[in-house]
Each structure stands twice: as C-alpha cells, then as structure tokens.
Amino acid sequence: MAFRYDPEFVEKIKTIPGHRWHPEEKHWSFPNSDGTLEKILEVFEGEDIHIDPALQGTVPDLRTKRSGVVESGLSPTLENLRRELLSRKYSYRTVKGYLYYNRDFLSFIRKEPSGINDSDIKDYLLHLAEERQSATSTLNQAINALKFYYGTMLKKKFVYEVKRPRKDKKLPVVLSKEEVAKILSSVDNLKHKAILMLVYSAGLRVGEVVKLKPEDIDSKRMLIRIKGAKGRKDRYTLLSEMALEILRKYWRDYKPDKWLFEGAKKERYISTRTVQHILEHACRQAGIRKDISVHTLRHSFATHLLEGGTDLRYIQELLGHAHSKTTEIYTHVSTKSLSKIQSPLDSLSIAKGGDD
Fold first, then answer.
1. Are 77 and 113 in contact (CB under 8 A)?
2. Which residues lie across from 65 on neighbouring strands?
3. Is 289 strand, coil or helix?
4. How far, in Å, CA of 107 to CA of 141, rounded?
5. Cα–Cα dist 135/141, whole Å
6. Do the beta carbons of residue 260 and residue 274 sit within 8 Å?
7. Which of 46, 77, 192, 239 places its Cα 20 to 30 Å from the Cα of 106?
8. Predicted confidence (pLDDT) at residue 192 exceeds the cutoff of 90
9. How far is 97 from 85, CA to CA, in rounded Å?
10. How far apart are CA 22 and CA 114, in angstroms?
C-alpha cells in the first residue's frame, strides 16, 4: 500500500493490530496472520486499495468503493440480487448488508435457492439468535434481506410468515452539555473540530456530515441542507453561529472543492470510519470514558433541545424522523422532568453516623 503522508491514514493504520513503522525504509508492515488483510480492507473502506496479485486469493469476496458496491467472485444468485438492489437505488449499506446475509444464509443451509423452504429460514434465524447471540436489529436486518430475495424477487410467500423478534427497548447514551464542550475543546485540528461541531450542532448522522457539499451551507438563512438522507429524503436543519464561524476559518485554510470535508483524495469525501476515529481520539483527550459513537452527538443534540424547551415536533423535523415515535425516545433520557423529582431518601430524617 502506498500513499502520501496523511495523518488520517496514519491514524487508520494504527488501529490495525501488529502494525509497525520502519523509519529507514519508510514503510509500514503487518503480521501475515488470519484476518489482517480483511482488517486492512475494513479500515480503508472507501479508499482505492490495490492488492498484490499474490494475495488475491485471500481477499474477501466483498470489495467496496464509495461510488457504489463492487463485487468479485459473486455467485449468479448474489450477482442478480446485487443488480436488483442497485437498480432500485438502495443505499450502499443496505446492499452490503443484504448481500452478506443472503450469502451467510446459503452457506449455513447448503442448499440451492430454489430448494429453500420456511424451515430453512427459521433454522437460520434460530442459529443467529441462539448460537451467535445476535441483537434484535441484526435479526431484523437478516429477515429483511431474506424477504427481499425470496419474497420480492423469487415470489415465495412462506417468508412472510416469519415472525419478527420483539425489539430491545434500549435507551441511547447521551452526553451532558459539559461533556460535549470538553470533547469539542480537546480538538485542535480545525477540520476535525468543524466536523464534530456540525454533527452536534445540527443533529447530523455521520453519513450525512461526510457527504456535505459547500453549497449545502446556507449562511444567509442559517440552515444546512441535507440531500438524500435516510429514506432518500431531503431536509433542512440548523446552522449554528459558532459552527459557521469555525467553518469559515476551515474554508480559508483548506479551500474544499467538491466535498465540504474531503478525504485523502480530493475527489472523495472523508470516510465515516475516519470521523469515528476523530471522535474516539477527542474523547480520550477529554477524559470521556462513556462508550459512545458519532451518533451519540446526534442523540445529545436532540436531548439538549428537548431539555431547552423545543417542541418534539420540531425536533422530529430537524432529525428527519419519519415517525414521531422514533423521536419520543428522547423523552425517556431527558432530565427536564426527572430533575424536579426528589428522591424519598432525601426526605428522611436519618442520623449521620461517623467513625468511632
């Protein structure tokens, strides 16, 4: 692998186990062990990685580029599935997920698609739930993937009898305003600070912030236009005055062209994985130990708006939620009402004990 010096690439390399820098030869090396090549491809997802022909046999089937999904060695079944998904303009993540679960299902069942029945699908889902201990969201994605191929494409009706598991009622992790301030203050790199500020100040998904273009920033109306968001919907969200100030400094220094936040190659946007690494580094610098992701900043944005008195309907619109029930989860993590309740312990008269 060869590239010009780029701190973002170096940070990616340091996440690969066993990495080693050779100062005299000026190159990195990695151990020749199982999973290393897969890890390199995963870390550099979306970048133009060239694999030596001697290693081609060990490269996983699934190869990705930001321009779409590129597959090598797909069976006719999966190739047909891929083409159908792309023709319907499904997102990159959905295509990747549907291909994975259909490939994994056929590998588990060891049958041709024409011979698949209801029992086979139930056996696979049971395998995911009990042996792999998969989360409810994983099971639902697997069901969606199988229903699309066997139900939508092959017109088999039995898949619609598969019952979906009950969703886990998990609450999102939310940062306090003080914690968000610590994280943002710990970032010295202007580009990195601008990215994290936009995510928090506008409630953006990580996939939305990386795909912003300069023309999406409407400084006159103080709005950010999000194009082709989840569900292929456009929306507007807030442009913070403080974020705009940082963006102007960033613009003067970096002069972005096609993408607001360019990757190592100017014609491509920064990867979502890089943004996650930026946040992880900022959390370490700020001493934040919570298990968070970039999406936590979006959760925190919504919760802080709710605690500040913003109507839930406006928050729903800013986040781009199709259903109000999705937005209502923030009422369960907001301290707006809970902070007014006094614990019964604090109303008791208890003698304070001391050391003898």
1. yes
2. 68
3. coil
4. 17
5. 10
6. no
7. 46
8. yes
9. 11
10. 53
pLDDT at 274 over 50: yes
**pLDDT of 44 over the 90 cut:** no
Cβ-contact 159, 150 below 8 angstroms: yes
Q: CA-CA distance, 62 to 42, in Å (whole number)?
A: 10
Catalytic machinery residues: 205, 230, 295, 298, 321, 330
Whole-number Å distance between alpha carbons of 354 and 356: 6
CB contact at 8 A, 176 and 198: no
Query: What is the CB-side half-sphere exposure of residue 68 using CA atoms within 13 A?
Result: 10
The letter for the amino acid at 224 is: I
State residue 151 phi and psi, 5-degree precision: -90, -55
**Structural domains of the chain in order of their starting residue, each with its CATH number:** 1-60 (no CATH), 68-170 (1.10.150.130), 177-334 (1.10.443.10)
Residue 165: the pLDDT is 62
The residue to which tokens 């994994």 are assigned:
104
Three-state DSSP at 19 gives coil
Of 124, 68, 119, give the one whose Cα is nearest residue 93. 68
Banded model confidence at residue 49, pLDDT cuts 50, 70, 90: low
How does DSSP classify residue 124? H
CA angle 320, 281, 187 (to 5 degrees): 80
CA distance 122 to 279: 39
Residue spans of alpha helices (H) in 29-91: 36-43, 76-87
DSSP track, 183-208: HHHT---HHHHHHHHHHHHHT--HHH
Residue 229 burial by Cβ neighbours in a 10 Å radius (0-12, 13-18, 19+)? middle
